[in-house]
Design a protein that fits this description.
The protein has 220 residues and is mainly alpha-helical. It has helices at residues 18-33, 42-47, 69-79, 95-106, 113-127, 137-150, 160-164, 167-171, 180-193, 204-219, and strands spanning 9-10, 85-86. Mean pLDDT is 75; it is low at 1-17, 34-38, 49-53, 61-68 and 71-87.
Amino acid sequence: MGIVSSHRRPHRNNGRSFCLEGERLRVTRARAMEEGQPRVDCQAYAQTKTSNQAPVFEGPEKVTPRDADELKVERLTHVGCGDIVDEEYDTKVKIGEALEAAAQAVGDHPVERSDAAAIRAAEARVVGPGATIPGGVAEQAEQAAESNATAGHDEDKVTIADILKWNATAKLPTDKVVTKEDAVAAVEAEVACAPAEVTKPYGVGTALTEAARHNQEESV
């Protein structure tokens, strides 16, 4: 889940398996494309729909692929995330990248209200309270959760991968590093809407929590 992108300093070995997968996500995305939040409750999420008065976030600029990307993945494949002196990239995980890591881990799970709430909280941490991204991952996740609640067959349900894979990094700004506060906001939103009031293993809340932990270690 961890991504390495541009501060000139050594990449510390955090021992986490998400590093290589995250790097692959960045490279594939590049090829394909040429801060507190109050405590939440689930009813609040059900009532907060996009209004005409809401600020609109137009989305990030397209990212141009870098020549070193493929070489970076090859090096990670052979030597792992440690022992690499990174001269090209910031080592911090961004919110969009953490969301795509969740899509890799639990992508085949149908979107539930708890997932949509966590995604909405994550998006809000990127664009700011009250702002919206028309057609963004939060809006899509909420629509998917509503549709899935009435779907007759599992095969008719929209999955987390359908919403987050590719879309998270394409539709969200790429410079928002995951912080502890971001993770807490997503976890609280997810728990508030989950039937058992717990986060989904390897889901959105967990992905942001792991990303925030990784980023904090990188700052030491």
